[in-house]
Amino acid sequence: MEFGPIIRALRRNQIRFVLIVLQIAITLAVVTNAITMIHTEGKKMDRKSGFDDDNLLWVRTRPFSPAFKEQAYRLNVVGGDLRAIAGMPGVVSVANTNFLPWQGGGSSGEVAVSGGDGSKFRTQEYTTTPAILSTLGIKLVAGRELRESDINDNAGATDPSTVVISRSLEKLLFKGESAVGRQLLDGGGIDNVVGVFDPFYNPYGWPIHEYCVFYAGHVSRRGALYLVRTQPGAMKNVVSLIDKRMLQVNDGRSVDLQTISDIRDRYFAGSRIVRGGMTAVIILIILVTGLGIVGVTSFSVTERRKQIGTRRALGATKSAVVRYFLLENWIVTSAGLILGLAAAYALNVLLVTKTSGAKLEWPFLAGAVALLWAQGIAATLVPALRATRVSPVVATRGV
Amino acid sequence: MLAYNIRIAVKSLRRNPVLTAIIIGGIALGICASTTFTTVRHMFARDPLPGKSDRLFYVRMDNWDPHAPYPTGDGGGKPIPPQLSFRDATALMRGSNLPLHQSMAFQSALTVYPDPKMARPYSETVRVCTSDFFPMFDVPFQWGGGWGRHADTTPEQVIVIDDATNQKLFGGANSVGKRVRLDDREFTVIGVLKPWRPFIRYFDVFGNFVAPPDAMYVPMSLTRPMLLRTTGNSDGWKTIPLPPGAPPTPQQLFDAFIESDIDFVQFWVELRSPRDREAYQRFVDGYVMEEKKHGRFERPLHNELTPMMDLMREFGVVRPEITAMAAISVLFLGICALNLTGLLLSKFLARAPEVSVRRALGATRGHVFLQHIVECELVGLAGGTIGMLLAVGAMRFIGKLITTTSVIGLDAEMIFAAVFLSLGAGFLAGLYPTWRICSVQPAVQLKI
Question: Which residue in A has a C-alpha nearest to residue B20's C-alpha?
Fold first, then answer.
């Protein structure tokens, strides 16, 4: 191998190669940290709600007809809506509820176990008609689902209500015992737990993402709200028809629709920007560094035409010439990568301390090193192959 | 002289179009990435009310449960409720005349009944606020203005509408003095806003702070008569018990809500000086000590006056990931500059014989320096221009991802920064290669 001549040649063009070394070092630092950021955001986005998100639709009605001031009128309209929506082709299930997944919040309150030590636990709390579990696409794991007969629209503040709770909340409150048949105390009255469901995940400002109580009831006071689950592929059709159907039930109100996948996309907009931006930066940086290596190697080939010709005239094969340039580049790249490892760690420490980023992981570092080695070889190959076309005759021309 | 140098620089660039394209493309990508991501960060981080924001203070009081502190979120945050109860905000507002302006506000929704010829009735978000909201946050008016302070104590059915609502209800004409029905009451339009879309909703950074400002504004004094409820966040740990037995009436529900320790009102004060700030802090503390005597505010005394920019930081308006992206994109520009140096060095040194001939014919080092640095700057400017055009496209795209109603664009500050960066990158990257070519010894090169 031509280590000796390569090192001596590198020394003659120190600055040019120092520049490449620095460039590769920073490239490694940026690429590894960018991959780490993509990975961190990806992990956030991979968190599943457990619901049939892609087939869920949120419907909000806002009444303007004065008749909606009467509770009986409102409840009559809710009943009409539920029948009309459930009867539409492509609709699997519908619930009248104030629960909305992926909005980044919701409503919450504190509950305590009746007969317990009195300690209070914060949980998400929503009101819903019985079809909520089939609408979200989650399972009942104990007890029974809510029933129409559980709903008391004329309940006073201290009257008991009927609830189902999430399994995570059951674990938190009852420490392994069954919640079915037990009672919770909220601010006003007693809640009878009749069932437990799983899974449930809805990100909230506070760490109560998996805790939920569903109260049996109707949501109509300030405009009825619905969650609708469609059959796969039927969303478009349902969206185009549902508001007309609902205005046929009652046109003293406005109806807006949003798909849960749109709401989830908005929730993850920041993560998508980071992922997209960092992916673009990685691709561009590899492109720019690659073109830089092509450019500099091309010049060194042009510059050394005479030397290459002389070597060929003295018996060096074409592959020996290619090997020379590849080896030269490999040495430069490796020097850059060694420096880059230090730079990657320094940048990571800075990002972790200043912007609460995630720590580097070894596999990403190894992957980035392999990637940059491959890039170095690929970028050198084009000018190196051009060097093989230098004819030995060049050696005999001029001085 | 400069024209001549530019001409030969262009000639030199055209001699090797592929290399020139690589060089300019590299700079363009660097400028595009760094401008895009620093602008995105700048949109979130910049001061929305320069020169004024440090005098605007957000007031918080710890009226939470004596048994447990206010729960903090996943990302930390202070253990103090982010908003005030209606009764406390009202008491503070009436209790001190120290602030230049004071604004109580919350978000609600009302049904608008337009002229049936124009549109169907619809529900719209309304900011329920006091008169000072408009001067305090520099809300721009097209016609008319806000209401006077008397409307903060005596309910008046007056309304300020934004430009879009004015288009929808009145076809865009000056509608001051016109009437519009909201819920079951008639309101008189007293002000129409100019088209107004701050990127950050700086007067309300809770929840979706990139949402557009509200469409309509009505006096806070209407809260009780119209039983207005918040549609924004509300936090509470204790509610006044409702009368047992029959289902509560809307009035009973409203009274319980408004008199309880339920926090939903955002309260800002504008204070003239640090001395006033201390005095106001004493006033708030004094109010809480007095309330403690009546059995409220059972937690340790904890009241905060937070300047606007600090509040924006505390509530995570600038996401750390965005800062990290901006930092990484600037490093990317650094790589592009290094790349440029390498390429220019090779390019210039290959030209040593030619430069030697010029030197031998009498060109000074200064001439050679100027010629080459002009070439570098030309490359920098071309790359910078293309990069900025790319950045405008990239920002449109990112803006759509953040919010559908506003466009992130370059402002004068960022354009200036981009021009400076591209010239700087061209100069710094070109300096070493230019110096090398200037120090070429003509004699060595000319020897044949």
Answer: A295
